[in-house]
Amino acid sequence: MKNSEPENIGAHSRRTFFKSLGTVAATAATSQVRTIGAELEKINSEKIIGPGPVPVTLTVNGEKLKLMIEPRVTLLDALRNYSSLTGAKEGCDRATCGACTVLLGDTPIYSCQKLAIEAQGIEITTVEGLAKDKRLSKVQLAFIEKDALQCGYCTPGFVMSVTALLKKNFHPTADDVKHACAGNLCRCGCHPHILQAALKAAGVEHAAKTEVITYA
Amino acid sequence: MKAFEYATAHSTDSARQLVADKGAYIAGGNDLLGLLKEYLVEANILVNIKSLPGMNKIEHARSHWTIGALVTVAQIENDADIKKHFPGLREAAADVASQQIRNVATVGGNLAQHSRCWYFRHRDTQCLKKNGDLCFARNGENRYHSLFTGNTCISPVVSSLATIFAALDATAIVLREGKEIRLSMAEFYQRAWENPLSHNSLGQGDLIVRVEIPTARPRSAFMQVSDKHAFDWALVSCAAAAEVVDGKLKSPRVALGSISNVPHQVETANQFLDGKVLDDATATHAADLILKDAKPLEHNGYKVPMAHALIRRTLLKLKGDA
After folding, report:
1. Across the interface, which of B9, B20, B99 has its CB nearest the CB of A183?
2. Mutate to test the interface with B, among A15, A45, A46, A115 (most CBs of B within 10 A)
3. How does B251-268 read in b/e, with b if 16+ C-beta sit within 10 Å?
């Protein structure tokens, strides 16, 4: 599993060059404090980290999550395997099925194709973060009411996609829902009910059954 | 995925230094992480370029617009001005993958993405594109493959943005060894036409910084046909762009995706369309010219009539209301 790269031995390897920059800049800083200070900050932020575990802080559902993980760990693995947040599901692990969908800020993304290290500093919301005071969100309630699932494996992903849509579009049409959910797959074939649930959650009741059947 | 080092670059100079000989730039990461997970590419370091200044903006000038390489596909899809001035670009962006991917996928990554050929993507297959001796698609399953190629590999370019950029005569500005070079879409993919090992003309360390689109073609359109209605690669995609003066096309350009290892453009068709009034007969003749030299294989012959219809439909969309 672990393929740690041997340390470079040469005196002028790229790694030691970048590591030494901080020191050089610090020495120079005595003469031109202000500009060099900014440079120093920049260089330190360009520091090479990994391939071993590095500290990563994620903000998930309002709580800080401090982890020691390798840079190659995806956000999905960080959530599921390093912190027991198993709401986001692993399906394809190739940005195709949508079961791993989480919100980064208000934006739905595939957590399987995002490095955890790159998800720092932005609020992450998983399906566990939707219920407030033990009350399910209106999207979750609509999924139950419209019977929008069978096995349930894709459900967290769909719920996150619909939640994201309703944050920016209060009155979506059926086409808006289809466009927003095109990146989520349900192998049980619950798409028509998922569409109804999304419209129900938006307060748009959807009577035309024929349109539901033409779900593409 | 094999383990890698990681760094965030704050200038293009340090990005180049950090990525060195064996690293890879990461922006949206959709294509790169997929390739790393399948062990199709190796990188000893990933250099995050999302913090490079000034590269995530869409800027307007009179003669051309500039789209930074870090602009996301969703940004293009949601930009009201793009919709007004480059409707074809907006249509192409909205058809790219899914909402989750468009939210993180960048213009640079969309252009630079690697082949989707299933023989290339299979980790156990040593095809021509991976330094092997044989293109397995030629005598194998080739329903998604090219009608045109400049070498033995028949893996098509699938970037929808490249197709519409070609029709709009856009230029990619690439930073190569500290100097900016300007590549037309034809030049950007030229090496894939010549060399099966290449997906595009970028070399190690080359960094796409922006794309410039001339405003000379206010009418544009993009259409694609896929197996699935949404979230699927195009079987064939077509983009057309022109100015329409007194009902006649001025400087028209047509480009097709997913049927060649470069955005497929035929200059004689563009010349034929220039100055013409768009009607069925003109569009049909243009489509004939564009597909004249198509060489279908065992399973992809359907792409010829499909492309023919798509060229006609896309061209006729340029008529708009006028």
Report:
1. B99
2. A46
3. bbbbbbbbbbbbbbbbee
* Structural domain that includes position A35: 14-45
pLDDT at A2 (0 to 100): 41
Three-class SS of B28-96: CCHHHHHHHHCCCCCCCEEEECCCCCCCCCEEECCCEEEEECCCEHHHHHHCHHHHHHCHHHHHHHHHC
Please indicate whether, in this complex, the C-beta atoms of B6 and A115 are within 8 angstroms of each other.
Answer: yes
Residue A14 contacts B where some CB pair is shorter than 8 Å: yes
How many domains does one find in chain A? Answer: 3
pLDDT at B222: 98
A87 has a chain B CB within 8 A of its CB: no
B-proximal residues of A, 188-207, CB under 8 Å: none
Say what the pLDDT of residue A13 is.
46
What residue of A is the nearest CA neighbor of B94?
Answer: A179
Local structure of residue A115 (DSSP, 8 states): B
pLDDT band at A216 (very low <50, low <70, confident <90, very high): very low
Q: Look at residue A3 and tell me if it is in a domain.
A: no
Average pLDDT, chain A: 84
ipTM of this complex: 0.95
Q: Is the peptide bond before A51 cis (omega within 30 degrees of 0)?
A: yes
Residue A33 — very low, low, confident or very high, per pLDDT cuts 50/70/90? low
| Domain match, A59 and A103 both | yes
Across the interface, which of B3, B99, B228 has its CB nearest the CB of A51?
B3
Amino acid present at B151: N
User: Rounded distance, CA B32 to CA A116, Å?
Assistant: 15
Q: Which domains does chain B have, with CATH numbers?
A: 1-52 (3.30.43.10), 58-113+154-317 (3.30.390.50)
- Predicted TM-score (pTM) of this structure: 0.91
Query: A8, A20, A41, A72: which to substitute to probe chain B, counting the most B Cβ within 10 Å?
Result: A72
- Report the pLDDT averaged over residues A89-112: 97
**Cβ B98–A182 below 8 Å, yes or no?**
yes
Q: How many angstroms separate the CA atoms of B72 and A182, rounded?
A: 18
A107: nearest CB among B26, B33, B103: B103
